Amino acid sequence: MKHIVIIGGGIAGIETASALTDAGHWVTVIEKDTRVGGKLNNWSYLFPDFTPAEKIAESLLEKCREKDFSILPDTEVKAIIRNQDKFNIHTSGNQNLEADAIVLATGYELFDARRKEEYGYKIYDQVVTSADLEQLLRPGESLTVAAGKNPKRIAFVHCVGSRDEKTGNHYCSKVCCITGVKQAIELKKRLPEAEIFCFYMDLRMYGKHFEELYREAQEKYDIQFIRGRLSEASEKIDKSLLIKAEDTLSGRPLKMNVDLLVLLVGMEAGKGTASAAFSCGVNCEESGFLKSMDSLLRSNISQQEGIFLAGSCTAPMSLNDTLLHARSAAIEVNNYLKKSIK
Amino acid sequence: MKEFGYTIIKQRTIDYDQFNGRLLNEILLMEPSFKVCLSCGGCTATCSAGDLVNFNIRRMNLLLRRGETAELESEIQKCMLCGKCMLVCPRGINLRNVIMLIKKNISRNKTTKY
């Protein structure tokens, strides 16, 4: 029986593990956290249909329970050594695993919004990130701002830490546009009196039902979209924020007072991905995400034979795309192992 | 002659075939970062001059790319070269140099039709 070690127990790691177990392989997942699910655990509701994130997390846990693959929680990879056509993996728990193939599913990290200082995250109280807002949208959480009042006017800023040379991230994080639309609708449902604005450069509604949700946001929830990138935010004496942008479609500078500013933070490759790549000699792209053999036919195959890539460690990806990428990684690993039997 | 009040109205259509792009190409050659503008308007939002007068630095790109040289020449005089636009530009465009290059080249190219 062939042994496959998967590094990362998020959505991609568990889905790959599940598919490879089904194909009759012995699979071990190494997860640095205590529980599996990765970033999914920080989300409350998912686009484009407001599915509770717990429901997806539960289905992953069910796979972990029902299928016969092992998970090493609270464990990190210390070193990976290639030994002919096998790999020796040394873990932080002082275990040595021998694997026939490795799948890197180390995921992403959220952009640290403090790096866009001009938007005032962690400087002004009423600036939150999309990830913070996700926690606030949980039932029972309060959305009040200064003086215990409900926010009357809320602005979302798209592309925070994406498509921005100043942060070194040239790429589009893909999921923030639709996250903004989803969260704007959720806020409007909770606070029907509030006016909600989205400041965007381009709206990339690429996925199934995304465009429909955008239309619904306009039609049913009166969310307003302004084409312009925020240049800065500053706090006023009453703790509200003054934001500045150009309304590029009317060609004039625009300022607006808001009670809450939500920064739609993008994805970055993160330290876990960088160190995993370094320890096994897999190359990174300029963006920091892992480099595949090519981006069309072999997006799951790294430049190191026997090492495969799954999910958002290769590029920003939605949950849906991650699941598909993970399953296709499993097919590639299976093909590789079948070939090496001959 | 009797004045009937008729004037020849300038065509509203952008006649792209009348545009020769010489000034644009000169500027892009000397400041290639100007190619990547995505018209987000961050520059205009933070512009010191734009706070006071009707000046839209983002439109420089469009005026240049559509051959609206006459308007460009008068507009460009409003810039105070403070450089705040360069601090916010997500594409890292050296806008101050673009302005300087337009100023330098626009009169030299005046005889040509853009």
What's the gist of this structure?
The complex is a heterodimer of chains A (342) and B (114). With 342 residues, chain A is α/β, with parallel strands linked by helices.
Number of strands of chain B: 0
Q: State the secondary-structure class of chain A.
A: alpha/beta
Rounded Rg of chain A: 22 Å
Q: Kindly identify the CATH topology of the largest domain in chain A.
A: FAD/NAD(P)-binding domain
How far apart the termini of chain A lie comes to 14 Å
Q: Largest interface, counted with CB-CB under 8 A?
A: A-B, 23 and 20 residues
Helix fraction of chain A, binned, reads 25-40%
Mean pLDDT of chain A: 95
Largest sheet of chain B: none
The largest beta-sheet of chain A arranges its strands as 5-2-1-9-20
Give an account of the 3D structure.
- The complex is a heterodimer of chains A (342) and B (114).
- Chain A has 342 residues and is an alpha/beta fold.
- Helices cover 27% and strands 26% of the residues of chain A.
- In chain A, the strands form 6 sheets. Chain A has a 5-stranded parallel sheet with strand order 5-2-1-9-20, with helices on both faces. A 5-stranded parallel sheet of chain A has the order 11-18-12-13-14. Chain A has a 3-stranded antiparallel sheet with strand order 6-7-8.
- In chain A, helix 1 packs parallel to helix 2 (53-66) and helix 4 packs parallel to helix 5.
- The longest helix of chain A has 23 residues, at 319-341.
- Chain B has one domain (19-106).
- Chain B has helices spanning 22-30, 42-46, 48-52, 58-66, 69-76, 84-88, 95-106.
- Chain B is globular.
- The longest helix of chain B is centred in the C-terminal third of the chain and has 12 residues, at 95-106.
- The interface between A and B is medium-sized, with 23 and 20 residues.
